[in-house]
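[job 0412] stage=fold_complex status=start
inputs:
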Amino acid sequence: MPETIQPVFVEVVVNGYTYQREVEPRLLLVELLREELGLTGTHVGCDTSYCGACTVLLDGRPVKSCTVLAVQADGSAIETVEGLERDGELHPLQAAFSEHHALQCGYCTPGMLMACKSLLDENPAPGREAIRKGIAGNVCRCTGYQNILAAVEDAATKLRGA
Amino acid sequence: MDMSFKGDFEVGMPRAQTFALLADPQKFVPVLPTFHSMQMKEGDASTAVVRVKVGIGKVHGIATTEMSLTEREAPVRARYVGKGSVMGSAYNMIVGFTLDDAAGGGTRVNWEGTTQIHGKILSIAGGGMRGYAEKEIRKVIDSLQGALVSVEHFESVVARAQAQGQAAPAGSAGLLASLIAWLRGLFGGGTPAAGASEPATVAHAPAEQAAPRRVPAPDPVRPLREIRASIEVDGNGNGRWVGQHLRRKEDLRLVRGVGLFLDDHQASGMLYMGFARSPYAHARIRRIDVDAAKALPGVRCVLTGAEVAAQTTPFMQIGAPPGSLVEDYGIATDTVRYPGEPVVLVVAESPRLVEDAVELVEVEYEVLPAVTVSEQALRNDPILHPAVGGNVIFQGTWDHGDVETAFREAAHVVRISRLHFHRFSSTPLETAGAVATWSPRGDIDLVSNIGLPGVAAQMLAAYLNVSTEQLRLRSHDVGGNFGTKTVIHTFMGLAALASRATGGATVKWVESRSDNLASFHGGERTFLDTEVALDADGVITGLRSRHLDDCGAYTRYEPLGCAIWAQVYAATYRLRNMHIEFTQVVSNKAPCTPNRGYSRLQQLWFMERVIDICAHELGIPADQMRLRNYIRPEEFPYTTPNGGVYDSGDYPRMLEEAKKLIGYDAWRERQAALRAEGRLIGIGIGTTLDSGTNNFGQVLLVNPDSVFSGNNEGARVRIGLDGSVIVTLGSVPQGQGHETTAAQVVADVLKIGPDLITVRSGFDTAWNSYGGLSGTIASQFVVTGLSAVHGAAERLKAQISRLAAGVLEAGEEQLEFGMGEMGPQVSVRGEPARAVNYWRLSNLANCNTAAVPEHLRDIDLNVLYIYKPPFSLPDVGKKFGNQTLTYAAQLHIAVVEVDPVTWQPRILDYAVMDDCGVAINPKIVEGQVHGATCHGIGAAMQEAFQFDSEGNLITATFTDYAPMTSMNMPDLKCGSIETPSPFSYNGAKGCGEGGGAPLHALCAAVQDAVHARGVIVTESHCSASVLMATGERPNRERVVSVASR
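[job 0412] stage=fold_complex status=done
writing structure:
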């Protein structure tokens, strides 16, 4: 029989809102976001940190939230796809993804957007190869990546101009 | 990463006996809680190959370790060295132990071990490996202490354990137990342990395969398709929106992360379903003990296969006896037939409790020999389904034209002994799932991401012993399908049973990635004894072959693939004389499911291999070979030897355009220069078809008693109470932009903007806008779905026109549709003041009915239209008839370089031409073309389901399966031509599947690169390991022969 496990207190700030929960120590960050906080924009694709559908920013760094425990995120600030839009305005990446048809089914899109945001935060003017590497940990099964690369190039240009 | 561990523990048994038993792995290893199987390494008596089940929670796999005894001093010490691999990672380890006498006649075991781990696994387990390892070691020590009490006790434990495993001859291993368990901890980890230091960060670093070597591109990339401002598609002046690149209606919710995917459904009191699954490819179930699982607090229901069978009817079979005698409950009853097959169904209050409960299920297996190679299945030893009496599910002969004469008069006969199309899957990023609620009132709500709900409803109703009309099937956003979710109905049925068994609770089933990889595979096919007759110019005049299709352990959607392939019988070629014996067998692999290009891409790949091998052997350039054999543009519509009607096309022009795109002649020159430097450069062409809109009458070819034929799709268009335009579809959108394109069509009919049209997301039988064959399959939406939408919109328009004419007291011929100040309206031409808007019309039809003259009261402004393509029944005896309506074409050219030492192929340049007739939304077409290309490149270069000799799936996680990433995807040079289909109202042809063109082009390119080394590409998978195996033992002499006169 599995041993009885005491819940652990966790406090996280997600997209600017503070949440406090008692969680099982084994609860994954993505499970906390989806099941406990109802933020279902972050998706699970592979369980083994290959596909990046679950990518969120943890204190500004991109992490695969299927491979981070909720308790590891205690005291952290987390950004998810739901926090990208500001005052009713889509983030330039969100707009560019739509403009360039860089999404089809949309399942990878939230993680892809967060990985791209991190990339552009670090490198506002990435070349095509840098973008390629920037999304190397995010799998898209629909688009063949061509239009994602174009969308990120475009969004980078717009962000620099903003 | 290096780790060291050591410790000691005491057991009750004396030292000499402890040593002897620990040093006998044949007895010792099976005691491990994670034991799977063990064999001695072939040709090395001192090395044991030990397999253990690895995995925690949702991640499952088999780890294989080779262990050698390097030091042995009885009864004091021993030392082992091991190496192994799992989940794309490698490890080495050394473990030793010394034994001391302990008080009371027992033994103290002092042990010590070190390991080095390399690979991706480190990023998965993150900082939590050590914690896991310690926990797992503890478990093994507990089991050792429990077993090593006395010789008798130990042997009884071993006997029980061995009964479950394959006790193959074994030599020395020993205390690898703790290491194995330790590794289980290391490699099991989807979840690092509490207190681990660093969270795993996203790698911005390169993936496993280096980027292609850069070679200057001869031509700049040009746009796929010019975005046209307007086109005329129906001769009535409509078409303002059709043909445009519109931003998709779907996008706004998806980029904001507020789509509604399967796993996003939440309900109070929701329960979760999972399965204990088979660790073996083939085994008899001897005993199942679910007591511990049932006793776990929070577990609400546990059902064995036998319990499921007692309350269901086996799933309906598509085929005819004896193949249809397969008994399929979606869960094993007495025998498991593929690794990962569900054995025990568990329902609990959280997904994590399901995992706990699954671990508590005990199943005792008697392992049986497994069928892992298709040809082996034909020997009927073993037989998978005794009721069938053998492993053959279907056998049929396609014979058309005069094959004998063709061979008698041939100038050349080329023989190809064996070609093999491998198993892979397009693995949509969202796995399969279902949310079932079987209410006590009897209605069954099934949310799922299945792609073919009309047929699924019929299969499910019979299985559950209910009426189809009790079932509500629906979906919202679907995270990709590519055909692979066509057969998830078995799991949907189990979810429904789980809901009923829990009193009508809402039960959610979401497949893990490991389960997905174990469950749904694209079709595998072997082509045997192919003979090709050619004339002196290299024109193929006749073909004979035996095709052996392997559908896996259960038939599910099969043997439909045994008919579907013949849609593209002779591919893009004029060949008239063909004789193909087609056989389908079962094997101990996952059941096959349709997968992008279903059953046709295998045939198309085969024909392209035939073309290229013949070209190479006869010294004819690959492009010339094709031009001599293509169906000619003036021959369309072209009737194939088996009665198919190709609607339109121009393959020579596509070839010409593709050659321009990639700079073919320049590449040929460059190839010659680089070859002179010893580099292996190849250029390959792949021509393929994407046949769309099935005639279900082809089911008759595999089952003369079938009650399916033709095709249909529904759509409903109505004016809402507020005057808005609402569309519901019978199709199941999965990312193809159905909402957007449907709105474009309606907008053109009513002459209003698509923004004013609401297309409901997803599918719902409750909308009453579907037919019995509804679904998103077989590249059909643009024809079936949009024809239905168009038909419904035209009928609605006719109603609007009649009602407006009555209201405006004008003749219908005077009316004009369009936008007014009060929204969408109808006005009298030339008199803008005489207008009525949609709100007023809806008000009259829906809320103000007494104000409407009696002769207009039949108008409801709520129109269902079911489109039925113009099909007839095939001639079953002659295997002759039109199986599909449209034939989009793709032509790819690839340039590859194969490393002469590692055999790693790299793409240097890549061009894509497509022709899908009229494009409704060119940007969406472009997306489909890119996506299909990516899947094909992945399948050819890196994606393959791999099995060991016992049938265990080695590629059990994404880390092993390695789907395409941005690092492996070359930049594409895309172009298109447009030959409108004469058979669809809009001139469009379905384009979703892409026909597997990259497999054809890349195999041809690799062939071109390595032909001089005596290598024939006989596998559809061209990874370095496959090429190296062939390259080190050139196969040309064995595979191909040419007889000329």
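[job 0412] summary: Chain B has four domains: 2-187, 270-368+432-510, 392-425+521-695+873-1032+1039-1044, 711-867.
[job 0412] exit 0
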